[in-house]
Write a structure and sequence with these properties.
The complex is a heterodimer of chains A (217) and B (576).
Chain A (H helix, E strand, L loop, with lengths): L1 H7 L11 H36 L1 H8 L4 H26 L3 H32 L18 H33 L9 H25 L3
Chain B lengths: L2 H9 L3 E3 L15 H4 L4 H5 L4 H29 L10 H36 L8 H23 L13 H5 L4 H28 L12 H33 L12 H35 L6 H14 L15 H29 L8 H24 L1 H7 L3 H31 L1 E2 L2 H27 L14 H31 L1 E2 L10 H4 L26 E3 L18
Parallel strand pairs in B: 1-4
Antiparallel strand pairs in B: 2-3
Helix pairs in contact in B: 4-5, 4-6, 4-17, 5-8, 5-9, 5-10, 5-15, 6-8, 8-9, 9-10, 9-11, 10-11, 10-12, 10-13, 10-15, 11-12, 12-13, 13-15, 13-16, 15-16, 16-17
Classes of the chains: A mainly alpha (217), B mainly alpha (576).
The site of protoporphyrin IX containing FE has 24 residues of chain B, from helix 10, helix 12, helix 13 and helix 15.
Chain lengths: 217, 576
């Protein structure tokens, strides 16, 4: 009896849950709801984008041309690959191959870092030539009125997305350390699973951002 | 119910509900969360117990209620007579802005969900805690950080934009500390989102065995519907306020017409959150009213499912009516008509609830306990507030009274006459559960009477002022409005005194009120029938198994108090 109870109450099970299934389902549902709030958060920006795009298509088309779509393309591939490695990490945990999971998480982290490096290259170029939002705009090469409108959206959307990538990197690093220390395995890996959901959303947002910003010209 | 079915019901075998006693089988006192969760300040600041977190919220939220109330009294003092009384226009603009912002973001939005919701939701569904206790505590700290931003604005240059922060005044016109208060509201939004998220998961995943969806107390349904709005609407406010901060700090130009932007877009974004937000305020209040009306009528609630689903209906339709705040801001004629129509639709589920409550009262055996006094005043004042909302939703009326005191009176009738009455009623109702002690009835009734009279004096006068053309947000007015404004200001003092007495009564009750048993009101929901007062740290010694509905008053007689304990308030037992 006491043994059975100990088996039902492993260390990772928080006291207020009655069993591991309840805990797992709760954390998953919680993450899904959080993702809904994220979608709405970005949704405000996407709505603003849609409205301004319909008002000023010429600004958006002209300004989009100065972005380097090849960099955007590379970044899209990077993020999609990182989603794959994250999913593989979870799979490896499910089959209790902890080492492989650690490697996949490390790859995810490295890919996310690569994404940020490319974003950094893009940003520093824009700062250099003055393709900046609002009143900081000083670039002379786009021949329409108010080209800064596009760059306001560009920076707000990619900035908010980049912030999410950074937060994601922090979480991945934390999971990486804990996985390496053997905290997760086949019986318990909720945190990795729900962080994976988050990471796929970050990926998904970029998949929308890429064509909307880089490919509309 | 006809006479016949009534007497038939009376003959059904009625099982008494066992009430847990204060002592266990060995005569030792049971643990309680106030004493046995740890006595140090540190144990409170690091607690994961939803009941303690509710009390942490209560301390801060009531503090801000007091601060917001002081601002309100200052506003009313200035308006006692035309011309400059105490403050000039600049100070006045700051006062009403701070009053509104503090009351909305720091008081009324967190009030019921974060205080009473935190305390009773897990108890009512028979859970040990909310699904994510650490997130719950984090939400309180986020609230504190948001409050610090708001306070920073307050002590530097304050803000004078109104709680609505309309652009372009907020982005380029005002030279006050708009950024910090906006960031404060932004951060507070996350606190609200996390509470909502926690509640949704808790209701879905943490219910006790036997607690099916239609056995949930209506308070839980209301909190659930509220949580949906918190989760769906608040992020939009977040991004809107962030845009405003970016606009003001970096001139991104989204809301600035000179840079190709559109200030009215801000209003759309703002009200897309803030109209649903008014239901974040009222829905949990409606949940409390459902509990109070049925408990104190000792009668099963009329139309349980209608009340439950109307909460969800309100939550959904509330996302489609934001344009009624912008009838005069320049929308297309079609949009204006559509929004007007939808505004009428959203009143239907609210009315359904009012009819159900009224029907529950009919032939109930009503006891006029203090919480019930607040519930009945809710019925009266919320109805006035809701009906005048319909006047405002009617286009032809609104273009005349928009931005007048009529609107001010409308929203105070729903927010104070509705939400605050429900909140205070709820406090009086669950107070003995929280502290195991009862407040003094006489002074609680006196406080209620002062609040009721003072409130109606203050705000009914404002309906008349509004129809006569007195615009809102002005620091002075023509001679002709003096008597009504003076009357309104006097009422606000009466109401302020009432709230003060209420606070002292509750506090004294918690500290040295008469000790009461587990179920002094004879309620049937789990927190009364299965938990001690105050509850144990983990709520229930054994997870309750639910067999009956939450309001089966015709099947069960609640055993009002455990034997050997001091009796309840001298109240008429459920005479049937
Ligand atoms: C029966 C349902 C309701 C209807 C039909 C309704 C309708 C309206 C309308 C049309 C306005 C805009 C008036 C104007 O600015 O010209 C308004 C303003 C307002 N309502 Fe309601 N309302 C209802 C319930 C509520 C509730 C339950 C609350 C809060 C608990 C609330 C809070 C407010 C506030 C705060 C404002 C003014 C916002 C501002 O401009 O500062 N209303 N209402
Ligand atoms: Cu509204």
């Amino acid at each position: 009896m006491a043994d059975a109870e100990a088996a039902e109450h492993p260390k990772y099970l928080q006291h207020h849950f009655s069993d591991a299934a309840q805990q797992r389902e709760s954390s998953k549902l919680g993450m899904w709801i959080f993702l809904v709030t994220e979608v709405l958060f970005f949704g405000g920006l996407f709505t603003g984008y849609a409205i301004y795009h319909s008002w000023y298509p010429e600004i958006f088309h002209a300004a989009s041309r100065v972005l380097d779509w090849r960099l955007g393309m590379v970044n899209t591939f990077i993020l999609i690959t990182s989603s794959l490695t994250f999913a593989l990490a979870i799979r490896m945990l499910q089959v209790d191959r902890v080492k492989a999971a650690v490697w996949n998480l490390a790859a995810t982290f490295a890919l996310a870092g690569g994404f940020m490096v490319i974003k950094y290259i893009e940003y520093s170029h824009k700062f250099h030539v003055g393709q900046l939002p609002g009143k900081f705009y000083s670039y002379g090469g786009i021949d329409v009125a108010n080209p800064h409108v596009f760059f306001s959206f560009y920076f707000m959307m990619t900035g908010l997305h980049g912030l999410h990538v950074l937060v994601g990197m922090g979480v991945i690093l934390w999971l990486l350390i804990r996985t390496a220390r053997g905290r997760f395995g086949a019986s318990y890996h909720n945190p990795v699973e729900v962080a994976g959901l988050y990471w796929h959303l970050v990926d998904l947002v970029w998949i929308f951002l890429f064509p909307l910003l880089y490919l509309i010209a | 119910m006809s006479e016949q079915t009534r007497s038939a019901a009376a003959e059904l075998p009625r099982s008494a509900v066992a009430v847990p006693e204060r002592t266990d089988e060995n005569g030792l006192p049971r643990p309680n969360f106030l004493r046995d969760g740890g006595g140090t300040l540190w144990s409170w600041l690091t607690t994961l117990d939803h009941k303690r977190i509710g009390i942490l919220y209560m301390i801060m939220v009531m503090l801000f209620f007091f601060v917001g109330g002081l601002f309100a009294l200052l506003v009313r003092l200035e308006l006692f007579a035309p011309g400059e009384q105490f403050f000039g226009p600049d100070t006045y603009n700051r006062l009403f802005t701070l009053h509104g912002a503090v009351m909305i973001f720091l008081f009324i939005i967190p009030s019921i969900p974060a205080i009473l919701g935190n305390f009773v939701l897990p108890l009512q569904i028979g859970a040990k805690d909310v699904a994510f206790p650490r997130l719950n505590l984090a939400s309180w700290y986020i609230y504190m950080i948001g409050a610090i931003f708001a306070l920073y604005s307050l002590v530097t240059n304050a803000a004078d934009t109104g709680w609505t922060f309309y652009t372009p005044y907020s982005s380029s016109g005002s030279d006050t500390a708009v950024i910090s208060i906006t960031l404060g509201a932004f951060i507070l939004g996350f606190s609200s989102i996390f509470t909502g998220l926690n509640f949704i998961v808790t209701v879905h995943k943490m219910r006790a065995p036997g607690m099916t969806w239609f056995k949930l107390p209506l308070m839980v349904w209301a909190l659930y519907a509220t949580a949906i709005i918190q989760v769906l609407a608040t992020p939009v406010l977040g991004i809107t306020l962030l845009l405003l901060v970016l606009e003001r700090a970096f001139g991104v130009g989204i809301f600035d017409p000179a840079m190709g932007g559109d200030p009215v877009l801000f209003q759309h974004f703002f009200w897309f959150y803030s109209h649903p937000a008014v239901y974040i305020m009222i829905l949990p209040g409606m949940g409390i009213i459902s509990e109070l009306i049925t408990t104190f009528s000792h009668r099963n609630i009329f139309g349980y499912k209608f009340i439950a689903f109307s909460s969800l209906a309100i939550a959904l339709v509330s996302f489609l009516v934001w344009g009624h705040h912008m009838f005069t801001s320049g929308q297309s004629e079609f949009a204006v008509m559509l929004f007007s129509f939808l505004t009428f639709m959203v009143a239907i589920p609210s009315a359904i609830k009012v009819f159900n409550w009224t029907t529950t009262l009919y032939k109930g055996s009503i006891s006029f306990s203090v919480p019930m006094l607040y519930a009945l005043s809710f019925l009266f004042m919320f109805t006035i507030g809701g009906l005048t909302g319909l006047f405002l939703g009617a286009l032809s009326v609104d273009v005349h009274v928009h931005d007048t005191y009529f609107v001010v009176a409308h929203f105070h009738y729903v927010m104070v006459g509705g939400t605050v009455m429900a909140f205070i009623g709820g406090l009086h109702y669950w107070w003995p559960k929280m502290f195991g002690r009862m407040y003094n009835r006489t002074s609680a009734v006196a406080a209620w009477a002062l609040v009721f009279v003072g409130f109606n004096m203050t705000f009914f006068a404002q309906f008349i002022l509004g129809t006569q053309g007195m615009p809102r947000r002005y620091w002075t007015y023509p001679e002709q409005f003096q008597s009504l404004h003076g009357f309104s200001s006097s009422g606000s003092l009466v109401m302020g005194l009432g709230f003060l007495i209420m606070g002292v009564t509750l506090l004294a009750g918690a500290l040295r009120g008469r000790v009461v048993g587990s179920n002094p009101w004879g309620s049937l929901t789990l927190e009364w029938t299965h938990a001690t007062s105050p509850p144990e740290p983990h709520n229930y010694p054994n997870t309750p198994v639910v067999e009956n509905g939450p309001y089966d008053f015709d099947k069960l007689v609640p055993r009002v108090d455990a034997p050997g304990e001091p009796g309840p308030e001298p109240e008429p037992a459920p005479a049937k």
